[in-house]
Fold:
Amino acid sequence: MNNLLVLYIIIPLAAVFIIPLLSRFNSKISGWLALSATAALALVTVLSGIALQTQKILIYKVGGWEAPIGINLVLDSFSFLFVTIISLIGLLVVIYSTAYINKYNSKNKYYILYLLMMTGMLGVVLTGDLFSMFVFIELAAISTYALVAFGGKAEEFEASFKYLILGTLASIMILLAIVMVYSITGSLNMAQAALSLAKLPQNQIAKLALALFIMGFGLKAALVPFHTWLPDAHTSSPAPISATLSGVLIKILGIYTLIRIIFNVFGFSPMISEILMALGILSMVVGGLLALGQWDMKRMLAYSSISQIGYIVFGFGIGTPLALSGAIFHLLNHAIFKPLLFMNAGAIEQSTGTRNLKDLGGLGKLMPVTFATSTVGALSISGMPPFNGFWSKLTIIFAAVLSGHYWYAFIAAVASIITLAYFLKIQKFVFLDEAKENIKNIKEAAPAMLAPMVILAAVCIITGIFYPVIIKTMVLPAVRIISQGLFYSRIIGG
Amino acid sequence: MIIYALAFLLFLVGLYGLLTKKNLVKIVISVIIMEYAAILFIVSIGDKFNAEDPLLLKGAAPHAMVDPLAHAMALAYVLIGFSVLALMVSLVIRLYENYGTLDITKIKKLKG
Structure:
C-alpha cells in the first residue's frame, strides 16, 4: 500500500502533460481531464485513508534508495488531514471551474496551472525531505503567481507582481534556512535532521535558521506584519482560485510547513510559543478590523482569512494538546467554509457583474441557493453554535484560559465578535436590502457552481453536529503526531 | 563563519534594493541579487579546502571529496530562480503595457 503515495504526485502531473496534447483535437476535453484527475486523487485519498488505519505511517522510498541518499514520501495522520483537504477542495473547485471559467479564453492553461499547483501542494505535504519540500513550495507558488494574473487586467498584473516579489523573498529565506540546517546536521531528511538537531540544543546557527523559517513561512501564510500581498492576490484572481488560495494554499505553504518544522524538526519551546501566540493575536485583530472597513466582498473575505489564520497560529502557539486539537480542527473548518464563501462571492460576481457591497442588495430572493449556503458559511465562520466554527473557536479560547493566558483568550473572543460583525455586513448589504434597479432580473448561478457550494455547506453542518466523530477520527491522531515531536522522527529516521 | 557573513551581506544588498528602489527593473535586479546570495551560500557550504573529487573515488582519500549534494541543490535552485525570473520579467512587460510607466509608486490601482 506504500506505493499509493507516489500516485499523489504522478496523477496530477500526468494530467498536466496530457491536457495540452489532447486539447488540440477537442477544446472541451481539458475540463474533463482535470475532473477525472482530481476524482482519481480523491479515490487515492480514500484508499490511503483505509491503509492508514492498519499502518501508522506510510513511507515510499523514491527509486528504492534508503533515507539519507534517497527522498522519502511520508504519509502520517497529520499530513493525511491536509491531503484530505487538498483533494476534497481540489475536486469541488474543478467542478465549480467548469461553469465559471468559460469567460476566459484559454481554459487549457488554466487547468494546467491549477493541476501544477495541486501537485506542488500534495508534494509539500507528503515529502519527508527539506530540499524537495522547497522545490514543491516553488512549484505551487510559481503556478499561483501565474493564476493570480490569469484575468489579464492591469490590477491582476499588479497583484501578481506584488505577490511574486514577496513570495520569492519568502522562498529565499526558506532556502537559506534549509541550507543552514543542512550545514549543521549534514542531512536534508527531516527525521534525521531532527535527531541531529536534538543533540545541538544551544546552536546559534539553528536559532538563526529557525528565525528565517518563521519569517519565510510567516510571509507565505500572511501573518500580520507580512500580510500585505494577500488581500490583493486573493481579490484579483478568478473566484475558484481565490477559494483554493484562501482555503488551502496558505495553509499548506504557510501553516503546515511551519508546524511540521517547528514541532517535528526543531522541537517546540516556550520562546517559539510566545512568538506564535503574539503573531496569531496580531493577525486575528488586525485582519478582523481591516475586514470590517472593506466594501469589496472578496477583499473582505481575504482579510477575514488573515484573521482566521491568526486563530490557527494562536492555537498552535499555546501548544497544549487541547489547543493543538482546537487549532487543527479550526484549520479543517476554515478549509471548508472559506472556499464556500469565495464560491458564493464568485457566483454573485458572475450573475451581477459586481462585487461592491454598495451596488448589491436583495439577492436573497433572486439567488436562494447562494443565499442559503452563504448564510451557513457566515454562521460557521463567525462561530455560531451548532456549526463547526463554534466548536473549534471554543476549544482554542478554552485552551487559552486553561493555560493561563486570560488576556489573549479575551482578545480572541472579541475578534470572534468582529468576525460576526463583518459577516452580518455582507449578509445585509448583499442579500437582505432592497434590490437595485439594474440587478432586478438576474438569475441564479449555473448548477455546476451550485453543487460544490451545497456540498460544502452540508459538510459545514455535518462537521458541526457530529464534531466528536471528526475530532476522534481525524484531529486527535494528527495532534498525536505533532505533540510527540521527535518520537515521530525516530520511527522514520531509524 | 565568514561564509555566513558574506552571504548575508549580499542578501542585504538585494533586500535594500527591493525596499528602496522605485523602478520595476531595479526591483527585479534586487531579487536576482538575493537569489545569487542564496546560490553562493549553498555552493560555499559544500566547499572544502584542497578537495577536488566530486565523488568518493577508489583509492582516493575521503577528505579529497567535495559534497556533491550542495552543488546539486545550487543547480536546482538556479533553474527555479530562472523560471521565477522569466515570470517576473514578463509581468514587468505587461505592467508597462498597461500602466505606461515603470515607476512602482504610480502603479496603484489596488487599494485598501
Observations:
- Chain B has a mean pLDDT of 87.
- Chain B touches chain A through 36 residues (CB under 8 Å).
- The longest helix of chain B spans residues 68-99.
- The two ends of chain B are 43 Å apart (CA to CA).
